[in-house]
Design a protein that fits this description.
Structural class: alpha/beta
Number of domains: 1
CATH superfamily: Response regulator
Radius of gyration: 14 Å
Number of strands: 5
Distance between the termini: 10 Å
Strand order of the largest sheet: 2-1-3-4-5
CATH class: Alpha Beta
Order of helices and strands: EHEHEHEHEH
Strand content: 15-25%
Number of helices: 5
Length: 134
Amino acid sequence: MNSTKKLAVLIVEDSILVRERLRSMLLNLGCVENIVEASSTPEALQSLEGFRPDAAILDLRLGSNSSGLDVLRVITRDIPGCTTIILSNLPAVEIQETCFQSGADYCLNKAKEFERVLQVIASIAGRAASPCSR
């Protein structure tokens, strides 16, 4: 039997449909046991006061005057070891460079690489590119 780590994941996304899709996909993966969702920077920062995720999936645009980069910087500073995944529709190279300079581990295009989030999460749990055991 494989000993797969059960993960805690933070999802920061202003679209409820995207949050619900991510939540469903992550729970079906079988290696995620705790998911906290936030739709804005203030909500995400508040959730981090009592939650230490193994991974964070962050959108960049979070409504008016709210950016996933602010959340990324706090996670990078305060939660070493948390894998950060930017999942955004902003594919410009300059934006990716900013994300990596701010501490992102991955910068994925929401339109083209949505499913890759599962591979990253499975890899963190110890089962690269395959479903986690239940």
